[in-house]
């Protein structure tokens, strides 16, 4: 196995614990917000966007746990071609983690901060710079998505994409 079983078990434990923290926060906010969508708006940092950001992160963590289980299962069964595909997916950082925080009100909840700090431990497991992106998310003073001015947002994205060294 490309990763030993102990490492995979440790990664799964961190992912599972972070997922439980985020899901608990997502449920708490969803219950609090029920029936109040108009009252709370839908701009960056609104309760509705905070719930969406949490949902994106929980979906991403669940997909990472699923990829880990598939990788371990395919490897154990000797299905090397399938295992290799899952290994590549597994090494990608979880979808929308930490970018889901771009939608979320500040300060971030204790559960969200705790989940992100746990996930920092997986910096060397996921493809480059995962801990740095988490640190940036934790330090962000406010939510930035969705933008108030979509045209300015698109110009900024095009500018960043055209910058030297952009991928």
Could you walk me through the main structural features you see in this protein, from its secondary elements to its overall organization?
This protein has helices at residues 5-33, 37-40, 47-76, 80-91, 110-120, 130-139, 150-162. Helix 1 runs antiparallel to helix 5 (110-120) and helix 5 runs antiparallel to helix 6. The protein has one domain. The longest helix is centred in the middle third of the chain and has 30 residues, at 47-76. The chain is an all-alpha fold.
Order of helices and strands: HHHHHHH
Rough shape? globular
**Largest sheet composition:** none
Helix content: 55-70%
Low-confidence stretches: none
Q: What is the CA–CA distance across the termini?
A: 31 Å
Protein structure class: mainly alpha
Q: What is the radius of gyration computed over CA atoms, rounded to a whole number of angstroms?
A: 18 Å
Q: In total, how many domains does the architecture comprise?
A: 1
Continuous helix count: 7
**Beta-strand residue percentage:** under 5%
Number of strands: 0
Q: Mean of the pLDDT scores?
A: 89
